[in-house]
Specification:
The protein is mainly α and about 525 residues long. The protein contains 18 helices and two strands.
Length: about 525
């Protein structure tokens, strides 16, 4: 057989080999969890072993789907390589889970069902098992189709569906569910508005200036300091809340101190670095690379501290119920349970995370460092504001909403600029070509204030130009198609809307299956 033929066979089987490696690694992890959990209880608790395996599977799906939101924008903007992002996220997710994950977890996520209406401890175990497995399966499906979804909503849907199957519709806290459902709209909307607002500020204060380097030298230290303030406050009230209980004002004060110190340190460094920079947007973007790396690390730490409970909360509840034979509204988190969650998240991120990282970072809209910086700011600031106002928000929805927010702002600005160019050309109809080219060259180099003055003078000299309705619509359509992928918007929005119902239906079906197969008849409701 010729060497070229062998090479063709090698290339054709490469995908299968990588898939087999991932599948083999997953099976080794699940089998390891099974063997370890079987040694914890004498006699062997089948419920605990099965729950531990499902918990590990859930943790891997959280790593594959949810963690991408923390590092995706940094990767898409080229501030981090994919490998570097995975390493940073893996380290800080694990640190957040093990150092600040807490000792006790609420077993009924968000109070979505009334645990007093669960018939028995045995029913509670299978309820939580069905909820955990349904949430994990839904996350797996979402990851396969490239849709970043909320793991909190997945587990809420799972608990709700299995709870109703176990205790009827009356077991559900429907008022609480309505509040959670509102977050489907609240989270991406606030995240998009905050991210777009920061990008608008950055454009008008830096990139629309004639001397971008001088503007960046003045403004970037302030922006980075604001980021440190926001992230320090975010980390204290969210990432470390299970270690220390700090009020918002105290956390904001500590964050302000960190921000001021950053300003004093960053100002001279940026001024020195700016001396060798060329007056172009690419140079300004480079100033945000280091802040984005820190943002990815801190977001990953806070995510590990908070969202690992989505994987290990039901597992901790089952472990507690197996030991005490009852229904637990709160349960201690054994070290081995936290380890299963942390290792599972890291493995899921490393093996399956790149797909969602690419989706968030580059497949929705094109990101550079400034845009990614705005999305990171939106993630921290929105969570801080929402937590104090009692608004239910999803970190996944905020981050993805931020990506769409900067994309839609760019569409608006590009469309407006294109309209302006059309008006300029209309005003110069019939004039000498060199005159038009001279005006366009001056207009392109002018600052935003100078552009406004030039347009006012132009309009004063000639009547206002009007594009037809069809021309305006066509122009907008061209830019929207280029800057924000509508297919990604529809796919992600659809996945968000059906997350709770899909997880709930699967969970109910799984509960009925488990009840029919394994539960003794005397403990059935």
């Amino acid at each position: 057989m010729e060497i070229t033929s062998l090479q063709s066979i090698e290339n054709a089987t490469r995908f299968g080999r990588s898939e087999m490696f991932r599948f083999g690694t997953v099976m080794l992890f699940i089998v390891g969890v099974m063997l370890f959990s079987s040694s914890l209880h004498a006699p062997v608790s089948v419920e605990l072993v099965i729950a531990a395996m499902i918990g590990g599977y859930m943790a891997m799906n959280i790593g594959a789907n949810d963690v991408a939101n923390n590092v995706g924008p940094a990767v898409g903007s080229k501030a981090l390589t994919l490998t570097g992002a995975i390493l940073i996220a893996a380290i800080f997710e694990a640190l957040g889970a093990t150092v600040a994950g807490g000792d006790v977890v609420s077993t009924i996520k968000k109070g979505i069902i009334d645990p007093s209406l669960v018939p028995s401890g045995e029913v509670f175990i299978w309820l939580m098992m069905a909820a955990l497995l349904a949430a994990a399966i839904w996350l797996n499906i979402a990851t396969a189709i490239g849709a970043p979804v909320s793991t909190t909503h997945s587990i809420v849907g799972g608990v709700l569906g299995a709870g109703i199957a176990a205790g009827g519709p009356g077991i559900a806290n429907w008022d609480r569910f309505a509040v959670i459902a509102a977050s489907w709209v609240i989270s991406p909307l606030i995240g998009g508005i905050v991210a777009a607002g920061f990008l608008y500020w950055m454009k008008h204060s830096i990139t629309y200036k004639k001397n971008m380097i001088e503007a960046a030298r003045r403004m970037v230290p302030t922006m980075v300091s604001l980021m440190v303030w926001a992230f320090s406050t975010y980390l204290i009230i969210k990432g470390l809340k299970k270690l220390i209980n700090v009020e918002l004002l105290t956390a904001a004060g500590l964050g302000l101190v960190a921000g001021l110190v950053t300003y004093l340190v960053a100002g001279p460094l940026i001024a020195r670095y700016a001396q060798s920079m060329t007056n172009e947007k690419k140079s300004v973007n480079s100033l945000f690379t280091v802040p984005l790396i820190f943002a990815a690390a801190l977001l990953s730490f806070a995510h590990g501290a908070n969202d690992v409970a989505n994987a290990v909360g039901p597992l901790a509840a089952i472990a507690d119920s197996v030991t005490h034979h009852g229904v637990a509204t709160k349960a201690p988190i054994p070290l081995w349970v936290m380890a299963v969650g942390a290792v599972g998240i890291v493995l899921g991120l490393a093996l399956f995370g790149p797909k969602l990282i690419r989706t968030v970072g580059s497949e929705i809209t094109e990101l550079d460092q400034m845009r990614a910086f705005c999305i990171a700011m939106a993630a921290a600031i929105t969570v801080i504001i929402a937590s104090q106002l009692g608004l239910p928000v999803s970190s996944t929805h905020i981050a993805v909403g931020g990506v769409f927010g900067v994309g839609f702002l760019r569409e608006y600005l590009k469309t407006s600029y294109a309209k302006t160019i059309q008006e300029i050309e209309h005003h110069h109809t019939g004039t000498d070509k060199s005159e038009v080219e001279t005006f366009m060259e001056e207009f392109g180099k002018a600052s935003i204030e100078e552009k406004r003055v030039m347009l006012e003078r132009l309009k004063a000299r000639k009547a206002s130009a009007d594009l037809s309705k069809r021309e305006r619509k066509g122009l907008k359509k061209v830019y929207r198609t280029e800057l924000v992928k509508r297919s990604a918007l529809l796919k992600i929005a659809a996945a968000w809307v059906i997350t709770v119902p899909a997880a709930g239906i699967m969970s109910a079906l799984l509960f009925f299956t488990i009840r029919g197969m394994l539960l003794p008849r005397q403990i059935l409701p």
